[in-house]
Amino acid sequence: MRIYPAIDIKGGNCVRLYKGRFSDVTIYGNSPEEMALKWQELGAEYIHVVDLDGALRGRGVNENSIKEICRAVSVPVQCGGGIRSMEDIERKLSLGISRVIIGTKAVSDRIFVSEAVRKYGDKIVIGVDAKDGKVVIEGWEKLSEYDAVEFAQLMEGLGVQTIVYTDVSTDGTLNGPNIGAMREMVQKTNLKVIASGGVGDISHIKELKNTGVDGVIIGKALYTDNVDLREAIKACE
Prior knowledge:
Elements: E1 2-10, E2 13-18, E3 21-29, H1 32-41, E4 47-51, H2 52-57, H3 63-72, E5 77-80, H4 86-94, E6 99-102, H5 104-108, H6 110-120, E7 124-131, E8 134-137, E9 142-147, H7 148-157, E10 162-167, H8 179-188, E11 192-196, H9 202-209, E12 215-218, H10 220-223, H11 229-235
Parallel strand pairs: 1-4, 1-12, 4-5, 5-6, 6-7, 7-10, 10-11, 11-12
Antiparallel strand pairs: 1-2, 2-3, 7-8, 8-9
Helix pairs in contact: 1-3
């Protein structure tokens, strides 16, 4: 299981939201690239980046910050937020991103997902963001008609190999991930599942490892020093 330190960017700053609420923001620094370099130096093998402004506006906003992150680190970077077209995908890849995460657009346009997977293969990751088991879109502001597992199965049928599965209700709380939901997703699909949301200490990482997820994204717990990245990586070995 791999640890993905998270860098969420809003207004060029490194921030964390509480339960996905854009009104509840904590700023942890004004240099996302320096944060990325810090995580790499502590042993991160992959960096997870989200353009929060992009997710809300439906287009890339913090591209300069993303480009600087890719320049600063030698490890691969995956990025989501506001990716709605093939041009957006190509733009992100041109910045140095290794994998792009498609969320809202995947819910509304399966043909787009199919074409993206055909063209870019495993560079395409689908973000499955769920609240009470239902997929949410547009920066977590709007509820869709899809059940999370059902939607993931649809994506698998289109050739998707990896998803980032976020339980929005636990995100930023440090109170623990939704273990049951993560285990169900692993059991009911053949996807590589990267778990996101709620990790607050090393015990949560060990619990997630037992579900069979392929990776876990850690955000707030790293910034508040509730989790030591080196210790987290060791717990995954």
